[in-house]
Structure formats: structure tokens, C-alpha cells
Amino acid sequence: TLTLPQISEDLTSKFDNTLPTPYDLQWTPGDICAAQYFIDKRWYRGLVKKVLNDDQVLVQFVDYGNVDPCAAGTLRKKPSMTSIPMQATCFKLHTIAPIHADGKWKREDLDNIHSFVSTKNCRVELEVIADSSSYGVKRLIMATGKDAVAVWVENRWARYANEPLVQYLQRLDAKERAEVENEDGSMEDEEVIFCKIKLVRVLRNSYFYSYGIIILFHSCDESDTNIFCWQLRMARIT
């Protein structure tokens, strides 16, 4: 069985540095093709989804699942290995939903979700989606043993779909307020308990004073002391 890199290697060696024929510039939805991916410039098996205009065609890379626009000149009509089944299978991530108030996905979140699992070995646990005959991803277990879906939610790239959006936003807002209050409280404690500030004024000349600020910061167990010094020069007021 050919691996994904081997399939790409075969197509790249066949079509790299070739020019399209007039036949290669005529496409209709449903056509199979070999397409050059715009990022790595390698060739992959594809399926034409839509003709966007005379210069661009929307292609699904059937061994990976992604759908991207491709320049018409980077498609070829005679792909190799058409007898090999498509290597990508589409499953719905039905347990997650967008976190934003408009209910729409942001590109940054989708990029984070994609990069977290892309090209990594995972164990996929599937389940039948309620009121549907299709399958969805229940859990996506990484090599580290972590559930990728849980990590996405923890990093606030997504939320669990079974929690209403309004409830999620209210809970998130309350959590963020609590975090801010905790940060403010800990900062106040450090300033009052663990910091000692000494201001020293030294006359440099008849026009300027130099102020040396020495902060003695003690760690919580007071076992270490760090000294930070700054020199501030201020104009003398007469």
C-alpha cells in the first residue's frame, strides 16, 4: 500500500516543471485531477468542487480533506493511481462549536485547531450523530494521551456544543473577572508585604538632581533577595 508521501512523490515527479495543455485548463465540478498545492508546491490527487473564475478552481485534496482554491494552470487532467481509494474520510466535529458571540468560527481559532492535530498520529473514537446516519468524532486522542477536543476547549479555541452559547459566554465572563480580581489581589500583596522601596536623592550639580530608586524584593519564603536599581534624572525646580 502506498503511503501519502509516496503518492505525492509519484505525482510530483510526473507533473513538476510541466506546462498545462489547453485540455488542462477546462474544468467542471466533479472532475478528478492532480493539483499542485500552493504552499509546498508539491502535487496531490484532487477533485474539482467549483470553477471560481477563468483563473481559479476550487479543489478538494482527496487524500487530506482540505479544500483550497488553485490556479487553473496548476491542475492536470491525467492523475496517477486512480484505482487507490481516497485516503481522507470526512467526520464531523459535532461536539464543539464557536466561542464567539456571533456564533461564527474565526480563522485564528480554526488555524489553531488545525495546527494542533495536523500531520500528527491520533486515535479517533467515533459515534453516530443523533438524528443522523453520519459519524462524528467523540474523542481525538493524541500520542501523549490527551484528548485534543478537551485541549481545544481549554485553550478557548472552541466550546462544547452541548453548552448554550449564552451560558458559555456568561461563564467565561465570570471566570475572567475572577482571574482579574485574583491577579489584582496578588499584586497588591506583593507590593505591600514583599517590596521595600527606598528613594535616594543625590545632588549632581546646580541644575539637576539624580534620584536612585532601590527596590528590595523578597520572595514569598524570604530566602532570596533581588536588588533592582534605576537612575532617574529630574530637572531641579527653583
Specify the helix fraction band. Answer: 25-40%
* Average pLDDT: 77
Order of helices and strands: HEEEEEEHEEHEHEEE
Strand count, sense and barrel status of the largest sheet are: 5 strands, antiparallel
Count of individual beta strands: 12
Q: Give the amount of beta strand, in percent.
A: 25-35%
Q: Give the CA-CA distance, first to last residue.
A: 88 Å
User: How do the strands line up in the largest sheet?
Assistant: 4-3-2-1-5
Please name the CATH architecture of the largest domain: Beta Barrel
CATH class of the largest domain: Mainly Beta
- Integer tally of domains: 2
Decide which structural class fits the backbone. alpha+beta
What does the overall shape look like?
elongated
Poorly predicted runs are 186-238
Whole-angstrom Rg: 30 Å
Helix count equals 4
CATH topology-level fold name of the largest domain: OB fold (Dihydrolipoamide Acetyltransferase, E2P)
Please characterize this protein's 3D structure.
The chain has 4 helices and 12 strands. The chain has 238 residues and is α+β, with helices and mostly antiparallel strands. It has 2 domains: 4-77, SH3 type barrels, CATH 2.30.30.140; 88-179 and 192-216, OB fold (Dihydrolipoamide Acetyltransferase, E2P). A 5-stranded antiparallel sheet has the order 4-3-2-1-5. The relative contact order is 0.08.
Features:
SH3 type barrels, five-stranded antiparallel sheet, 25% helix, Tudor_domain_containing, Tudor, disordered C terminus, OB fold (Dihydrolipoamide Acetyltransferase, E2P), alpha+beta, 2 domains, 238 residues, elongated, three-stranded antiparallel sheet, SNase_OB-fold_sf
